[in-house]
Design goal:
Length: about 350
């Protein structure tokens, strides 16, 4: 009895495929538009299936459907999915194909019989969300269930299925269910537990106001640096005095040369002459020159004494002693002092 049923089912399937093939439009050689390409793929897919290469043939049928849908393409894809155990997908293809033909079409009888047989075999799963639940998204095997499809029996494939519930501020919650052919069930979904609040990083503790904060240490002054600095300052004043003495001395020498040209050998100049005017005006320059020489020599002397008598520190051991050198300028001269503060 079982053997005859298997033979009858195989014979009926072969008759259906032959019927669908016979009613399909004949292939065309042109491949210039999507419809022609879809037709070519359709016949190539049927040829692969008849030769035993079902996987390649079904793949070509799916590509043909993506280019141009026909009832025959849908019917043959239904058989591909049914043979692979995807009876829910097969049922959908049979329904889609039947919607493209009228009741007088010879294929309508075959399609209706397949739809009735698969409707009894396909499992049903209903997903229910209780009222008042803060649910944002419900996924069934990775596909979102629209709000209108909740609480509606969904046709699913036999086997395992995973439902994921997502809600704002909560962890995802998963529900697993496994169905066989003809089974019907429902799953009441609820959101997951609340997410733990993320704590903000704590600021470092403030220092207690009662504990006095010690002041920063004062920079240490090398021993003898004050005396050495004073020596350099006084020496600098002396150098400035010598420079001033050199300048005024040069001016006096130039005036003396002019006086000698206008006056006689005894130094007597005619009243109103340039030499006479220069001779009478040289007094203040002579006084300034003398004062500059005095300040310069005294400053140099005192500065050298202060620098030499200052205590030596680490800076001195590293080569920080002052050095003195002659200073020659136009119309005068002096001393220069160099060193590190």
């Amino acid at each position: 009895m079982k053997t005859s049923n298997v033979m009858r089912r195989a014979f009926g399937g072969a008759i259906a495929v032959l019927l669908l093939s016979a009613l399909a439009p004949s292939p065309v050689a042109a491949d210039e538009d999507p419809k022609a390409r879809a037709q070519k793929l359709f016949f190539e897919g049927l040829k692969d299936i008849e030769s035993g290469n079902r996987e390649a043939g079904c793949t070509k049928l799916r590509e043909s459907l993506s280019l141009f849908a026909t009832p025959n393409t849908l019917f043959n894809l239904a058989r591909c999915d049914e043979d692979a155990g995807r009876i829910a997908a097969a049922l959908e293809y049979w329904k889609r194909g039947l919607s493209l033909i009228d009741g007088s079409d010879p294929r309508a009888k075959v399609a209706k019989e397949k739809i009735d047989a698969l409707e009894a075999r396909v499992p049903r799963l209903r997903v229910i969300s209780q009222q008042g639940q803060a649910i944002a998204v419900v996924l069934l095997d990775g596909e979102e269930i629209t709000p209108t499809s909740l609480a509606v029996p969904l046709r699913v494939e036999p086997g395992k299925h995973v439902i994921v519930v997502r809600a704002s501020g909560r962890e995802d919650k998963r529900f697993a269910v496994e169905l066989g052919e003809k089974e019907r069930t429902e799953v009441v979904v609820t959101p997951g537990p609340e997410l733990a609040p993320v704590e903000a990083p704590k600021p470092p503790p403030l220092a207690s106001s009662s504990a006095p904060v010690p002041p920063p240490p004062l920079p240490s002054t090398p021993p003898g640096s004050g005396r050495r600095t004073a020596g350099l300052v006084v020496g600098g004043v002396g150098v400035a005095g010598l420079v001033a003495a050199g300048i005024t001395g040069g001016v006096l020498v130039a005036r003396d040369q002019e006086i000698d040209r206008d006056c006689n050998e005894q130094g007597v100049c005619a009243a109103g002459s340039t030499g006479y005017a220069l001779a009478k005006g040289s007094g203040p320059l002579l006084v300034g020159n003398a004062v500059a020489w005095g300040v310069g020599l005294a400053g140099i002397g005192v500065g050298i004494a202060l620098a030499l008598t200052a205590p030596k520190g680490k800076a001195d051991a590293a080569g920080g002693n002052a050095s003195i050198a002659p200073l020659v300028v136009q119309g005068g001269g002096g001393l220069s002092i160099s060193g590190r503060f």
